[in-house]
Design goal:
The complex is a heterodimer of chains A (298) and B (384). Chain A has 298 residues and is of the alpha/beta class. In chain A, 34% of the residues lie in helices and 28% in strands. With 384 residues, chain B is mainly α. Chain B has two domains: 91 residues, D-Maltodextrin-Binding Protein, domain 2, CATH 3.40.190; 229 residues, no CATH class. Chain B has a four-stranded mixed β-sheet with strand order 2-1-3-4, with helices on both faces. In chain B, a hairpin with a 2-residue loop joins strand 3 and strand 4. Classes of the chains: A alpha/beta (298), B mainly alpha (384).
Chain lengths: 298, 384
Amino acid sequence: MLSIQHISKQFDTVKALTDVSFDVPNGQILGLIGQNGAGKSTTFHSILNFIKYDGTITWQGHPLSPDDFDTIGYLPEERSLMTKLTIEQQIVYLARLKNKSAKDTRLRIDDWLGRFAVKGTRKSRISDLSKGNQQKVQLICTLIHHPKLLILDEPFSGLDPVNADLLKQAILSARDDGAAIIFSSHDMENVSALCDHLVMLRKGEMVLNGTLNEVRSQFGKTELYVTTDWSATRLATLSGVADVETRQPGQYLLHLTDPAVGPDIFAELTQGHYIEEFSQQPPTLDEIFRMKVGEDHA
Amino acid sequence: MVLGPFLMIGLTIGISYLSANSASSSRQVAVISTSQPLRRDYIKQQDSGLNTKITTVSAAKSAMGKNHLAGYLLLSDNQQQIRADYHGSSQMSSALKAQTQNFLSRYQQAHNYQQAKLTTKQQRLLARTPVLQQHIEKKAGTANLAKTISFWILVTMIYIILITYSTIAAQEIASDKGTKIMEIIFSSTTATSYFVGKITGILLVILTQIIIYLLGGWAAFQFAMNNASLKPLITQYQSLIDTVLHNLLSINLVYLFLGVIIYTLLAAYSGAIVAKAEDASKAAQPVIMLGVFGFFATFPFQNNMDALLVKILSYVPFFSSYFMPMRIINGTVNGWEQAISLVVLLAAIALFAGYIGSQYQRLMLQTDNRSFWQHLLHGWRHQS
């Protein structure tokens, strides 16, 4: 398990992290979300001992040391490969740094290139690959040694939906192998689909921490999805409705000021009317993210 | 890059050969005379530089007009007087002039003796000349020359290798600076291991270059020994060559290699402290300046090895690689002094490598904005 306890980091006068604490058990995925500059990369750099910090970080019960390097897979935010090398040379070089034999790595390269549908052969030069394919090669370099601690900084950025699905499968496969995985993303759909646990940072402080359901339930069931022949203007007159969004003609999303008004609205809408849809839910992660960012700007 | 010096030497020899061949015919002199015995005797005593095919003044003038001939020598024997008139576009070469003068004197003298009808004894008495002989201590002269040659070869080798690899080392390190690949690497191995690996790689390239030069030198020597025209030259200077080789293939090679190591470390550190990769060429400047300073600082002392400054600098890392070999070549230093200087140099290398290794991750990842001096002050405050 990766355990982060009360870590803080200050760069000159800027507080990058303030008392951040969370755990990532083996076989689980933690999503780290937050705006640019919220402290996500600083958290990753602290875990990897790239920077000095206050607080405690342990991996499998002890502070991370060079002996643990072989069990770590790290994908930095910006992609960077040795462009003069071929795909094979690059993957073998980084695998050798993880104490994996060149022979074994070479045997598995074609399989990995196939899994990520990389357009190129093992002899293709990195500089000749498209940006997307370079990113896939970097992902292969991160995963090929079967890490037990996977740290992925914005792994989905720049990937199209098809390739994002391939990456999701690879992350889930690593989780099933028992890896503790922490990743950052601005794509809340991917975070919702993958994470067992969620942490949101804002200006270096934790503003959300829990499972997806725990986080969503903190906000109450303030979202009401209805399909009705009522007009948006009429729906807006209902008591307890803050705002109405038209999803499709006849399909609306009502933002409630108080979740308790749901039954009253249901009774009002169904008086002598058949309605196809009435679903009261907590806000989506995307909405929660916007709300939390909005609180800061307010 | 490694083969550069060999290519330069090859090109120089080739160009010189072509140039010499094309210029030789235009430097020749024709010999013309109405007296064939006189012309024949003159040609016989001259070994080179003559065009023997041209026998008339008109042919010689024509060849000179086409720039195929430097000039012609008109020999005549009128009324017991031997005479030579040189016609050319420039002065006779001093060698040709001396040889011609010598020939004319001997020829005229023989002619005079014949005309005077002198006895053999009288001829021998008149031929007697005073003696001037120089007595040179050849061994001491050779030893001094060997020292000078050894000194120049050694300091030039250090200088060339240092200038070449300082820039390469600084650029190698600086080009990695701030790149995300460094984050991946430092999540896989320690910064110290990576730094030592990188420096070792550069040093192995340097070692390979030195070995190639040694093999190239050996091959050239073997070629010269088996070449009919060069062998006499080698044999003539055998003792000089042996002394130079002895001076070079000794502990001085260790000083050369260690000197390159410490300068490479400094270059690597300079590369690591630049703000951005584009400044890599600037980063190597202080190292190059230090190397150049060491190189030129040796000049005034090559004939004054007992100077106090030479003795001091032969123990100071960065300078000892220039000054201690100078003293060793000159034979003004004992084994203990050499050992102390080597230990100081090795210790400096170890300490320097350790310090850079400990700072390398911070510098390469640019994870804080403190300068070198701020770090140094911070370290002192914590120690005191």
